[in-house]
Amino acid sequence: MASSIMESLFQRSLDDLVKGLRLQMIGESRYLAKVLDEVKKEINSTDAATKVVALQKLTYLHMLQGSDMEWASFHVVQVMTMPKFAYKKIGYLAASQSFHEETDVLVLTTNLLRKDMGSKNEYETGMAIECLSRIANRDLASALTQEIFTMMTSGRTFVRKKATLALLRVFSKYPDAIRVAFKRLVEKMDDPDPQVVSAAVSVLCELTLRDPRSYLPLAPEFYRLLESSTSNWLSIKLVKIFGALTPLEPRLGRKIAGLLCEQMNKTMAKSLLFECIRTVTLGLTDHAGAVKLAVDKLKEIMAQTDPNLKYLGLQALAALMPVHPWAVADNKDTIVQCLNDGDPSIQRQSLVLIMGMISESNVTETVQVLLQYVRSTDPIFCNQLILSILSICSRACYEMISDFPWYVSVLAEIAHIPFCEHGEEVGRQLMDIALRVESVRREVVKVARDLLVDPALLACVPLQGVLCAAAWVAGEYVALAPLGAFELLEALLQPGTRLLPMAIHAVYLQAVLKVFVFIATACYQDSSLGQQNNEHGSSQFLGEGSLEAAMVLIISNVTPLVNSVNMEVQERACNLLGLLQALEKPTNSEDGERWRDEGFGALEALNEVFGIELGPVSVHAQGRVVVPEGLDVEDNLDALGPIGDYDEILLEAGEKRPTSVYREWDAGFVFTQQSNDDPSLADASAALLAQHRHRHENYYLPTDAVSRNYPPPHFSSANTPTTPEAAAPSTSLDSSMLGESSQLWTKPRQTKARRPVVVKLDDEDDMPELSAHAKKKGLKDEFLASAIRDALATDESKQRVDANGLESAHRGHSSRRHRHGQHSTKHPENGSKHDGSGPSQPDKTLVGQRIREEVHEGKKQTSDVSRKEQGRNKYRPSKHEIMVLEDGLSSNSENEREGTFELKENARWKKKQQKQRHSHRQNQHHARSSVPTQADSVPPIPDFLL
Amino acid sequence: MILAALVMNTQGKPRITKFYVPLGVEKQQEAIRTIYSALSQRPEDSCSFVETEDIFGPDTKLVYKHFATLYFIFVIDSSESELGMLDLIQVFVETLDRCFKNVCELDIVYNFNKVHTILDEIVMGGQVVETNSAEVLKAVQDIWKLERVGDLNVPSVRGIGSYRSKS
């Protein structure tokens, strides 16, 4: 006792805690640990006040510092049960802040919440409802559905609106509650208090967005509310609902177009205006008048300086773009200006729009304009711009691009941009273009040469991807080098290359090999030719360098690399030097000459291999390679383990060069052949060797046999025949074009003029890393949706009266069965009695016919109850019959249900509930099984639309 | 719906946090840090919306307003109107101002319970419950009165919040 007094006397209050925290500039964590220790002690106190203050402090720390509060959950419940309002409130706050679905003490709160919801004080009730709407899990929701249901008809607005809102959480945690409370929720749309109406609509809006199809039958209600709505909040939600509904039902769009236009014209609230515009962009895109008005309004809005309006305007335009590109074209000046906005959100939106407007005819101008912006903006946006340019231009095998030399120059420009972080992608595209577009190779090699020659770029980390690609291009297409191969060799061997990562350096060395082979073969041919006519020099190929100079250069620069720590670099350096040894000056002329000829012979062979044209490799190529018989990929290859690491490094470093994939592929074939030809390869060590060769083909010197045996790549030329007329318009690079001719933005795709051949593989997709897959928000819970469909079906009779008859093909078998299950035998008679007086009866004779059929069915059922189930399963009535039958049934069952819930006696309620649950379960079963058919069928069409 | 309501100062210290979607404590703190770093980099005159796909999933947005040393932030998904949320922030701040007479950061720091009460009267379970500042003020003041007295049966507060008509 004494200790608790001491505790409460000297307890740190929340204010003290906050003050203390504010004083702690450093050592905050120590202070917090101390406070938490105190809290842990105090919260066990028997003194209520001490405990409450401790809990309050804990809640505060939880909220601000993320302190764990799981351990205190039981104390939270204890505080929630305290009678004093102020204490209780602290407990409730702690609960709603810290409890989650898995909190084990939730079970303990059920009765507590029920009691507080029944409190005489509306604030206490409100507090309990608020808490429920935060913490409810399935059990809690199912236990308290009844309370919420009752409170929805409470006399106090305060309670009514909160109970209505709490339904959302209850529904999503316990879908069965929909059957109980959905009808009342719909009724709340007619509540005398606008607050409650707003709450009901807000819940319905949330539900509709999750699964619009189920709520189509409520459209007339929403329409009526929107017509009479005076509150912007309410209108916004209603318009949002229509935004979700109209795409499903075009006739609904036609119906509400007038109303939306009226709203757009008269409202002063920008929020409502934007909601209307959004709904137009979502569901009314084929309604010319509405779209026109929306675009006009957007134009007005975009002219203002408010950044919020600008942002939302751009967003709305982006939504319109796919269907109405002219709307975007109309606003293009504003959009281009927005690129220069200081606000990243706005910049990004306008970039999206501009990218959407790009077409073949304006790609040059647009990219030119974007490149100007690239240089003047901050690094983040700059990289977004670059990425957009790269992805849009490379889309679908560069279908936009007809002027490839220009695009290659753009790539080069991008590579030189200081903040550029997309070197890898630029490099990939350079290589890709070099492979695919033969006619532009000379330009690509020139770009590669420029990149390689500049020593300043070597230290630039983001550019290494480009350099890697440039080195490969230079090596592969050395024959096209603008200033000769020797210069390339110098560039590839400059001392700065040692700054490069090892994997890229290895690519450089491979390029050196290729360039050298080219030089050497050219010299050799020259010298053999030169014996006949000396005047033809090799200068046009080799620049001013000679073979000896090249060898000296290589030997002096590559020799140190033999000791490189990187296996790859070391191996390639050794290979290179090994080759050179053969060509060194002969010591004695006779022997040396032969030695030298043999060396040149090897070079010739290499040259032939390197000279083979490489095609692009399909992403699926690897999958098509048949696994050779007897190859056990699962086999333990521990012996090769250490080498495997380098594989990974290589892959990481972007070494996935088409060459490597390609050669690996053909190596696979070699391997197959060998294993077929020579059965002795089954011998373990030979197989290992072959596998090693298979895996590391790059490091093996290609043999002649290899070059003969690989299958030809699949080429299919995608060029369109060029007509002289189509080739006429010459594209101007002037960026002012963008401002001048607005047709540029909307011009339909022209026939491709003078487009060079782009090699395309038959099954090629976009590059996977660039095609962003926009994930659509899926249906969250199919079960909830099905439950709602059922609940709506139960609701029918009311809507019939309200909407002056809703034809609904939607009332499916499930609801009918449900009723049959519930009200066993008497209903068929009721049904046939009632249907004559149903509110909407189209045709008398038809009705008569139906009645007969129904009576028939009724008889069958009454006469033989035991075979009822069986008979129902057999007898599948048409939709019309169901409709008529239900007319009677629903009104009947409705009354009965109504009665159930008006009664406050618990015993009766429970009995009923059990019965209902039972039938729910059955019904669920039916509902589940019938979901696909319902989903497939045409959505219900409200009559008022027709 | 509204996924979260936050108040934080320009130093990145959270003042009020309320998450209406289940989110672990660490995730909450991480979200707060990410939001702060996103907001603090934005220039003064930029728009009030930030897309937050990486924090709260697709189609979510931050709607925020900057008052003196505080950011008021609502995280919303596509079922709320952005401009509507700005109005709601206005309602929230207005109510705070009326409750605390010229509200400043310190008021919020020292009265976190009260601010929660106010917020609860405006947003409930992620849905907007009341948009009229006067209504909110009335409810909040009643609740505070009840809190001060403690016992709901004391004559002075008997009228407050009890049902006038039977339910």
From the spread of the alpha carbons, the general shape of chain B counts as: globular
Q: Percent helix among the residues of chain A?
A: 55-70%
Largest sheet of chain A: 2 strands, antiparallel
Rg of chain B (CA only): 17 Å
Task: Provide a count of the helices of chain A.
Answer: 48
Quickly list its features:
heterodimer, A: 946 residues, mainly alpha, two-stranded antiparallel ribbon, B: 167 residues, alpha+beta, 5-stranded antiparallel sheet, two-stranded antiparallel sheet, 6 helices, 7 strands, 21% strand, disordered C terminus
Secondary structure topology:
The complex is a heterodimer of chains A (946) and B (167).
Chain A: H1 2-10, H2 14-23, H3 28-42, H4 48-65, H5 73-80, H6 85-98, H7 106-117, H8 122-135, H9 138-151, H10 157-173, H11 177-187, H12 194-210, H13 219-228, H14 232-245, H15 250-266, H16 270-283, H17 288-303, H18 307-320, H19 325-330, H20 332-338, H21 344-357, H22 363-376, H23 379-398, H24 404-415, H25 423-436, H26 441-453, H27 464-476, H28 485-493, H29 502-530, H30 539-542, H31 547-558, H32 567-583, H33 589-611, H34 621-624, H35 641-652, H36 658-677, H37 684-695, H38 704-709, E1 716-717, H39 737-740, H40 743-746, E2 759-760, H41 782-794, H42 796-802, H43 813-822, H44 827-834, H45 844-863, H46 868-874, H47 879-902, H48 906-936
Antiparallel strand pairs in A: 1-2
Helix pairs in contact in A: 3-4, 4-6, 5-6, 6-8, 7-8, 7-9, 8-10, 9-10, 9-11, 10-11, 10-12, 11-41, 12-14, 13-14, 14-16, 15-16, 15-17, 16-17, 16-18, 17-18, 18-21, 20-21, 21-23, 22-23, 22-24, 24-25, 24-26, 25-27, 26-27, 27-29, 28-29, 28-31, 29-31, 29-32, 29-33, 31-32, 32-33, 36-37, 41-48, 43-48, ...
Chain B: E1 2-9, E2 14-19, H1 25-40, E3 49-51, H2 53-56, E4 61-67, E5 70-76, H3 82-100, H4 105-110, H5 112-122, E6 123-124, E7 127-128, H6 133-149
Antiparallel strand pairs in B: 1-2, 1-5, 3-4, 4-5, 6-7
Biased composition (Low complexity) (chain A): 716-732
Keywords (chain A): Golgi apparatus, Membrane, Protein transport, Repeat, Transport
Protein name (chain A): AP-3 complex subunit delta
